[in-house]
Amino acid sequence: PRHFLSLLVLWTALVASPSAAVPVRLSARRVLSAGAGLRSAGHRSAELAPSNNATRQVNWKIHDRQNSKQHIAALGLSTLQCNVAARTDSKSDRWERCPAECPVFAETKGDGVWCNFECVEASFAACSARNPLEPLPDEKRGICRACIVQGCDVCNTDGTNTCLHCSSGYVLTNGICSSMFTYVWYAAFAALGLVILLVLAWVLDLNSRPIINKEGLMHGLTFRSRAKLHMAASDQEEPEAGTEAEASTRHLWPLSTNLLSKPIAGPGLLLSFNFQFVVILWAIGVGLGWLWLGKAVDEDLLTLGLKEAETPRQNCILVAWGYETQQRLMKTKVLFVFGTYVVTFLLACIHGVRQLRMFQLMDQEHTTHKDFCAICYGLPPLKGSEHIEEELKTSVADATGENVVGVSVAWDFEEHEELISSVIQEDLDEREQGGASGGRSRNRRSSSNVPPINPDLKESSAGVRWLFQKMERTFLHPSVQRIIKKNRHSAGKRNAADPGTADGPVQSPRDGVDLDEVLSDLCNADIAFIVFETESSRNAAVQKSEGLTFRGNAITLHPAPFEPDTVIWRNVGNSSMTEKAKKVGKGIGMIFLALATWIFAFYLPYADFITHYNYSYGQEPGLVSSMTFSMIVVAGNALMYLVCSEVSDRVGFRSIDEREVCYMLLYSFACVLNVLLDLGVTYFMVYEMMKGVNMRTYSGVPLADLKTFTERFESYAMQRELGINLSAYSFPSTFLIPFVIEPFATVYMPYKIMTLIIRSHSQIPRNQVEAFMRGTNMDLSRYADILVNIMLVVLVFYFPGGFTTTLFLALAFSHMFIYAYDHYKVLRSVPSCYFSTMSVDWWAQWMLCVPIGLLLSCAVFKANCQQGQHCWKGYELLLKCSAAFVLHVFLHTVVLVFIVPIFGKKEIVPTPVPYRRCSETIAASWFSTNPVHCLRSQYLHDHHPPCDFFIAGKEHLLRKNEKLGLYFQDFAADAEDYDEKLDLRGAMEILANSPHQAAKWLRSSVSNRGFNLTRTFSTASHAPGASPGASATPGAGASPGAGASSGEGASPGEGASPGPSVPLEPPKEP
Question: How many other CB atoms sit within 10 Å of the CB of residue 192?
Fold first, then answer.
C-alpha cells in the first residue's frame, strides 16, 4: 500500500501541474525506494502550507500547482540547480535535497550575507572554494562541514576530519582530542558499578541465609500493620442485627476511603489531597484550553517549536518560519497567558476560601482532644519533686469555676531523653509479654539481660560475610534509620540496633540510674496543657484567664491549636522565638553552604564540560553525560532534602505541624534553587549548541554576536531549543520518574531488606524489631513537589506553544499517579499520623504566588514590542517583568491575609460531646503522649494503674483510670496477613525433609479448604513465654495477636488459633 500510494501521489502531482516542464523519468526501483519515505515526506511538506485557515490542513488535495515541485522533492527529486546560490526563507522546503550531480549544500558567507546556499559537488575543492572553514563534503548530511572532533577548538582545513587546536581540558593526539579526565570518569563509574554490585550481592546473601527468627519477624510485621492508620470505633459500621461483634474494634481504613472528604489523619492531610486534586483539574483545564485555542484560531500554535532541523540550511528555514509565525500569533498567546493568569489567580482565591471553610467544617464536625485543652503559659520553674499537676489543676478550677479533668505539664528532659525513652520502652515490652502485673514494679528487667548476638554469625565474620555485616551495621545505624524512616520527632533515640557488634549483653541507659531521683530533679517548662470536661468550659476558662496567677506568676490560657500526638515534647518550652529565628537563620546558612559545596564539587565541573563540548552540526552530549547530569540533579535533591530536614529538626519546634511548615518552606526554597541551577546549565548548554551550528537570528545576526541575555533569550532558535530542553527536563524526568522510583526506594526496599535482616538475626530485641519494621513516617513535603512542578509547567509559556498542551496534560497525568500512590501509601503503608492545623496548606497557598506571578511576568514579557504596546530592551525589560512578579506577590499576600478570612465561617459552635466520650474513642491524649507525665504517674505518684505511654500500634496496652482522665481501653487492632516468602521457603524444606508429616498436613489442609502455607507457618509455633490460645483483655498487657484470628497477622501462639493445620516446627539451621 505504501508503494501504491507513492505512485498515486506522483501522478496527482504531475496532473496538478502541467506547467512543470521538468522531464520526469522514474524507474520502478526508484519509485519503490522513494515511497519508503513518503510518510515522513508528507508530514514535512505539510509544514510548507500557507498559514491561513483555508489552506492549513495537512492534505494533499489542498496543495496548489505551485507546491508540485515540493511533492517531487519529497519523493527524492530536486528542483534545485547546481552551483546556483539561493537564499532561504520561511517558504523554502527545508527537506529538499540537492541533485545527484551536486549532492551537498555549501553555505556562502560574507558581509551582510546569510542563509545563502548552493548545491555543489561532493569534493574538497568545491566545498573549500565556497567556505574555507567548511571544506569537508558530507553526503549523508548533504552539507559541506568542518571537522567533527570532540573537544576541538580549531579544525584543520586540509580536508581531513582532524583538529588543529583542542579546547581546555583536552590533549591533541594525531588530530584527535582526548579528555584529561577520561580515566577519572571511568574510575567514578566503575566505583559506582562496584557499589551497586556489592549491594546486590549483599541482598542475595541475606536472601540465602537460613530463617532463624521467624517469630521475631512475625512480631515485627504485626506491629507494622497495627501501627498503621486504623478506624476508631465511631468510624466503623455497626454490626448487623443477629451477628456477633468482633473482638477487635479497630480495622484498617478501606482503600475506597475518600481522602478528599475524610480526615483520617487530620484536616492537614485532607487539605493536602484537595490541594493536589485542584492542581490536577487546573492542569487539565489549561492544557485543553490551549488545545482548543489552537484548533479554533491557528494550528500553528500547536506546532511551534516542534519541527526538526539537522543542518544549517534547515535551521535557517526553521528560524524564518518560526519567527514569522510566532510574531503573527503573539497577540493571541499574550491574551491567553493573561487570561490564564486572571483565571488562575481567581481560582487560587476561591480555593483558599474553600480550604479555610473545609478546615473549619472538619474542626466543628470532628471532636478531638484539642477541643478540650487550653495551653497555660507563664509557669514558674519548679522541681519535679513537687506535685505541680494537682496544684495547678486546683488553682485553675477555683479561679475559673470550670471543671478541670487534669493537667499535663511540659518538662525539660532533653538531657535525659534516651533514659526516659528506654524506660518507657522496656516497661511496655515487659507488660506486652505479660512479665509484670499492672506495670508498676520499679525493678524492671533491663536490656542488659538481652543475650549476645547469634554465635553463628561470629564464626563467619571474615571475608565477604564480614563486609556484609559491616553493611548491615551501617544500614541499622540510628542515623541511617532516622533518614529512612523520617523519624525526626520520636520520643527517644534508641530506635536502632547493632546486631553484629555486641560481644556481650547490651547495656541499657537505665542501668545504675536512680529513676526517682532523675524525675525529681527535672525542671518544668513554662507551659502546661490543661484539659476541661467540655469545650464550652475550656472557652469560658480562656475568657476568664485574665489576671490568673500561679505561685505569684501571671499565667494565661489559650486554646490548643494542635493535637497531643503532634506535640514534640522534648522541644516544648525549650527556646524562645528569638532563639528559633537564630536557628532558622543558621539553617539557611547551612543550606547555602551545602548548595555551594554541591555547586563547586559537581555543578561547575559539569558546566565546564558542557561549555567546551563541540556542538557543531547538531552534536549533543551522549548517554554518559546525560546520566551524569541526572545523577547530579538527584544528588542535589537528596542533599537538599537531608539538609532541610536536619535544619527543621534543630530549630526545636513544639509541634509536628510547625516543623512541617519550616521543612516545606525550606525544601521548596532549595528545590527552586536547584531548578534554577539546572535551567541555568541548560541555558548555557543550549547557547553553546546554537553557536556550534552557527545559528542566527531572523535578521541574520549570529547568536555568538548577541551581547545581552534578553537578545539571546528572545531569538527563536534559543526559544525552540530551550522549550525542548524544558519539556524533557519536566516530563518524565521531574514530573513522573522520581515518584515512580519513590515507592520502591522509600517503602518496598527498606521493608524487604529489614525483613531479610530480622529473619536471619534471632537476638534482636523486640522493641528494636518494632522500630526496624515500622513504616516510613508521613510528611507534607508533597506540597513542595507540587509547587516546583507547577513552576516548571508555567515556564513553558515563555517558549513556543507546541509544548504547552503536552506539558500541562503530562503534569495532570503525573499527579494522578502521585495522588493514587499517596492515597495507597496513607491507607496501607505509613504509620499512624495526624496533621491538625492548616498552617502548611496556608503557606503552600501563599507560595502559589510564585508560579502565578510568573504567568503575569510572562504576559508582560511576551507583550513587549507588540503593535501598540511598550517596547523595552535589555535589562529594562527584565526590570519590568520582575516588577510585575513582585506586584502579584504583594497582591496575593494581601488577598490571603485579609480577604480570604472574611469568607470563613463566622461562628464556630462548641461541640456538645464531653471529654470522656472523646477519650474513649481517641487513644492519644494530652496525658498518654507526655513521656515524663507517664513516668511521674508510675514512679513518683504511684497511681494504680498509672498513665501508660501511647505508641501507635500498641493502643491495646493503655489502661483505663478515670481518676486520671484516662478512659481509652480497647482490644488490639486488626493486623494484615503478610504473605512472606520465608514461610513458603520453610514449608518446602519441611515437605522435603519429612514426607510423612507433609502428607498429613496436606490431607488436613485440603479437607478443611485451608490450603495456606503462610497462615500455617505464621501460627505453627508458640512464642516464648506465651501460652497457646490465651485470650486477651483490653489494656491488661494484651500481647500482639490477642483477639486477632489466624490470618490477620496474629503473632504465633498469642491468642491465635492454628486453624486447619498440623503444627510444624520451623527448619533448624544445620
Answer: 12
CB atoms within 10 A of CB 1042: 25
* Residue 823: all three cell numbers together: 492515597
Check: CB of residue 65 under 8 Å from CB of residue 17.
yes
Cα–Cα distance measured from residue 746 to residue 486, given in angstroms and rounded to the nearest whole number: 10
CA distance 893 to 783: 18
Task: Please enumerate in sequence order all residues whose Cβ is within 8 A of that of 968, keeping only pairs 6 or more positions apart, or say none.
Answer: 919, 920, 921, 922, 923, 925, 928, 955, 958, 960
Confidence bin at 53 (pLDDT 50/70/90): very low
pLDDT digits (tens, 9 = 90+) for 645-704: 888 888 888 899 998 998 899 888 888 887 888 788 788 878 877 876 778 888 888 888
pLDDT at 257 over 90: yes
| Residue 221 CB contacts under 8 Å (≥ 6 apart), including other chains | 755, 773, 975, 978, 980, 1049
Rounded CA separation 670/644 (Å): 8
Q: How far is CA 915 from CA 210, 360, 532, 872, in A?
A: 52, 20, 7, 66
Please list the residues that pair with 430 across neighbouring strands: none
* DSSP assignment string, 256-319: T--TTT--TT-HHHHHHHHHHHHHHHHHHHHHHHHHHHHHHT-GGGGTTTT----SHHHHHHHH
Q: Which residues pair with 531 in a beta bridge?
A: 373, 406
3-state SS assignment for residue 808:
helix
Which pLDDT belongs to residue 615? 66
Closest by CA to 212, choosing from 870, 644, 639, 756, is 756
∠ at Cα 671 (665, 674), nearest 5°? 145
Host H or E run for residue 409: strand 404-412
Q: Which three cell numbers stand for residue 355?
A: 480550604
* Cα gap 843→502, rounded to integer Å: 47
Q: What whole-number distance in Å separates Cα of residue 428 and Cα of residue 957? A: 8
How is residue 465 written as a grid cell?
560475610
Judge whether 449 and 505 are in contact, CB under 8 Å.
yes
Q: Euclidean distance between the first and final Cα of the chain, in Å?
A: 70
Cα distances (angstroms) measured from residue 727 to each of 301, 765, 803: 16, 51, 7
Q: What radius of gyration do the chain's Cα atoms show?
A: 36
Global pTM exceeds 0.85: no
Query: pLDDT tens for residues 546-587?
Result: 889 999 999 999 999 999 999 999 888 656 677 777 877 887
Report whether 1055 contacts 1030 (CB < 8 A): yes
Q: How many C-beta atoms surround the C-beta of residue 593 within 10 A? A: 11
